[in-house]
Structure formats: C-alpha cells, structure tokens
Design a protein that fits this description.
three-stranded antiparallel sheet, 3 strands
C-alpha cells in the first residue's frame, strides 16, 4: 500500500474521473508520497494540502525496499551516478580508470611525437620549399600558415589530453 499512492497520483485524469479517490488524504515523505496514514505517522510525513497532486513515477532508488539504515546510507553514492547507470565495484572502476589512463597516455605519446615531427618540418617558420613553391611564393606562404595552424592545433590537443589525464584518479598501483 506504500506505493499505491504513486499509481493513484500518476494521472490527473484518473483523479478527476473518480472523485472518491481525489478526496483521500496524501502525505509527503521526502520524495515519496503515500495515502497510508500509519506509514505516514511512522515516517513523520507531512500532509499535502491545497490543489491536486500529480506524481509521475520515475526510477526506483537503489537499495530497493528494505527500508533499513544500510539502504539509506548507500543512497548518497548512488545519487552521484546518472539515473539508470549500472553500479560498478571499486576494483572494476580502478581497472577502467587504469585502462583510460593507458589509452590517454598512448594518445599523448603519439601527439607529442607528431608535435616534434611538425616542429622539425616547420623549421622555425622557414620550411624548405617544395616543387612549384620556388616560383609561386604565395603557395609557400599558404603552406607555412597551414603548418603553423596545425602546430597550434596539435599543441591544443596535447594540453587537452594532459587535462584529461589530470582528471583521472591517482596513478594506478602496479599489479
């Protein structure tokens, strides 16, 4: 009967169609509603007064239905996870973090190697001329500008990867 009010309050049209149900008292217990007076007294719920109450049932809280102190204590960590996401054990999460770190570090090494290659080719803004660039100076200037922009993009990528690595939890332990 505890959650019967959720069904009762789920649709305003049902309450309007059945006036006897609309007359029933409803108590609010935090984010939960009930029409059971004994449950409301046990939990210290407040009676809802005023206009119609419409409750749309969402996902059920983790910890399911025991009502014990341990289920209410675990609610804090579940509140941080997105709704409907599966719970991940600490060991599994550390493994995922370690895998993410290794992928990001590999990407960082590739980006740094590419940056070194680009700097060498760029040659402090004076790369070697190629083919028709000896006769068409504007073509050379365009290529130099593209190289400079690519260097800046790659440097930005490196900074972004370093930020992501910095957001990961501490360095994983050797296994």
């Amino acid at each position: 009967m505890k959650t019967a009010s959720l069904i009762f309050l789920a649709a305003a049209s049902v309450a309007a169609a059945v006036p006897a149900l609309a007359q029933e008292r409803v108590w609010r217990c935090g984010n939960e509603y009930t029409n059971n007076a004994t449950v409301a007294q046990q939990k210290g719920c407040k009676i809802m007064e005023g206009g119609n109450v419409t409750v749309v049932q969402g996902t059920k809280p983790s910890g399911g239905g025991g009502g014990s102190a341990s289920s209410s204590g675990s609610g804090g960590s579940a509140a941080r996870a997105p709704a409907g996401s599966p719970r991940v054990e600490g060991v599994d999460q550390r493994a995922r973090d370690g895998e993410a770190r290794s992928v990001l570090e590999a990407e960082l090494r590739k980006a740094e190697a590419r940056q070194t290659e680009l700097k060498k080719e760029y040659n402090n803004g004076e790369p070697e001329k190629q083919g028709s660039e000896g006769r068409n100076y504007q073509k050379y200037l365009d290529r130099v500008a593209e190289m400079k922009a690519e260097l800046a993009r790659n440097e930005s990528d490196i900074a972004g990867i370093r930020r992501e690595i910095g957001r990961l939890p501490g360095k994983p332990q050797a296994q």
